[in-house]
Design a protein that fits this description.
This protein is of the alpha/beta class. About 40% of the residues lie in helices and about 15% in strands. The chain has a 4-stranded parallel β-sheet.
Amino acid sequence: MSTPRNPLNVLFLCTHNSARSILAEALLNAMGQGRFKAYSAGSSPRDNQQPHPLGLQALAHAGIPTEGLRSKSWDEFAAPGAPHMDLIITVCDNAAGEVCPFWPGHPATAHWGYADPSAGDGSDADKAEAFRKTLHAIKQRLELLVNLPDDKLAATALQATARNLPKQ
């Protein structure tokens, strides 16, 4: 049985790359113990898109580094010279339904849908709580991923493994 090369590159996709995918990127990079390198991107980030301030605040309160986080287009990861991805995970339903670019190497894919914590007309306190809850939910699933044995992360098993990690 082969073990995955280190680190395993994981790309989290969402529509704007400002909330859920940014949370997942930062969390996995903090939790990955050198076995994972996380990235995030959006299918259609707005001009001058930035990570949501409440998302950055939730990460900071959880002790997760936020340096270097930025919103970017998924085209950046489909371009020549981009890091080779082993796993691509959509974290919003909109991105899951879109036609993705061609990903070199045919990485495993999974969809982990989470509600947009920045959506709605709630107060800033309500939205901050939504970000905290989303961060917690993503963290629970990522804890399962980072604790998988190497044989479950091998290319032949990765797609089924990632798709079947339960949402808490």
